[in-house]
Amino acid sequence: MIGMKNNQTIFLVFSIIIVFVTALRPSNDNPHGNIKFDCEVCHHSGDWSVRTTNTNFKHEETGYPLVGAHGETDCRSCHESLVFSRVGIACIDCHTDIHANELGLDCQNCHTPASWENRFTIWEDHNVSRFPLLGIHAALDCESCHRGPAEKQFTNLPVDCAGCHGEEYLNSRNPDHQLAGFDKQCEVCHSPISVVWQQVQYVHPAIFPLRGAHINTDCMACHGEIYTGTPNQCEDCHMAAYSSSVNPDHVKFGFPTVCANCHNETRWEDAIFDHVAESGFALVGAHSRILCTDCHVNNQISGLPRDCYGCHDTDFTSITDPNHVTNNFNHDCTICHSQDIWSPSTFDHNNTSFQLTGAHLTIDCVACHESGFTGTPAECYACHEQDFNGVQDPNHLTNNFDHDCTICHNTAVWSPADFDHNNTSFPLTGAHLTTACTGCHQTGYTGTPVECFACHETEYNNTNDPDHQAAAFPITCENCHNTVAWDQATWDHDSQYFPIYSGSHREKWNTCDECHVSPASYKIFECIYCHEHDKTLMDEKHRERPDYQYLSTACYDCHPDGRSEDD
Fold first, then answer.
1. DSSP string, 326-343
2. For the chain, which terminus, N or C, has the lower number of CB atoms within 10 Å?
3. Last residue within a domain, chosen from 49, 74, 89
4. How far is CA 144 from the centre of its chain?
5. Are 286 and 294 in contact (CB under 8 A)?
6. Please, which residues bridge with residue 392 across strands?
7. 481 found inside a domain
8. Range of the domain at 8
9. For residue 105, is it within any domain?
10. Rounded-to-integer distance, Cα 236 and Cα 185, Å
């Protein structure tokens, strides 16, 4: 019985093998299995070799089109068996699942036939996960984070910074994160945007914002190894600087330890002590640049003088040009000096009763202040007496000129004088402008007459055409003459008396005495000497004129314009 059962078992196994082999055996004895393509589509008819070019085989007709990298892959890479139907079409059939089935078997969820890495698509997919890739994380290889105990891990990875950066946390020494008890929320100080871990964006608490030099100060300089309970007052860190300060000595001066009263966070040495508020003495000019101990000798802070002389008495007594002591200068140094610089002095002479102008601006002080700086006269003559006495044209002494030099001279230059005659009662015009002063002021400069005749009597007496004396002309020369030239008389006979330069008498005479027949008086004139009319004829012609007379004066009375009734 046992042997019978064994034989039956052997027969059953053999039958199964026969059926399996029969199923594996291709039909028609084709090594590629049951395919519908002609052999010459892929093989050469001569030697049965596989065509590498000019093949008409279309893989898409098999229901599996070759796209992307599949179109460039060697056929045997996928078809390891000559039976073409014995090939998997799922990605996992060819591609080893390095994700250890953590992400499923649908490779196409992340990969494409075009590129197995397909980093951009993976990056986009990653950004909708629990951990978007930002900053430096987007440039890292996947294996940088996806590494597990065995090989790679893609699920159940931590998304907090400390999960990956715990080593950096433990190894940080400036500051020591572990010793300082820092929170493991790395993003409080670090950012994935930073290229390196050391680029920190920690915002210091508002109770002590970092400004000035504090921004670049090493954390441990203030915190040491402890970051809790750190004091936030200046003196807590700068007490040594306070105690060692010698200019001024903060301890001896009794300065408060509130450093912010004088110092700022940018630079310890540049103190901004409010000298006015603390002492009532403003530091301006050079006082703002000198050392405190220059005035506060031996750190003295009380009883110091506040006037210039109190500190500058040595400067005052040492000056010899001018000598401040012998000249009994006022001890108020600000009259001449400023707080910017002691020398040269900045005395403003314009604030005195004698403003400096012209040449006075450039001369030495002692030229005027030979006998000192008090009681110095302000009159020109006091300094220019020799100039006054030495002038000969005109001679100021003999002419008894006024000692007020400013009447003729200015401060720019003593000579030439710039006396303005127009400010007198006799403005100079015409030829008077070029006439020498002594031409009119022969007997001096006081009481000089302003009438023309006073200077031009000789011209008046010598004129004979007409003879001014004989004609008893008035001595008001300006009636006929001007200041440009004596010969250019401007007597207007036509408008004042009788037209002789126009009308019928124009160019009918040569000399005045043709009409003015009496040299003794130009009031006497004759008409009938030229107009020799027959008296009988004239009498007849004027017989209807009751006031008619055969006289020149009568002719003028009726014919003042020189015209007759026939004209």
1. TTT--S-GGGT--SS-SS
2. N
3. 89
4. 55
5. no
6. 395
7. no
8. 2-89
9. no
10. 30
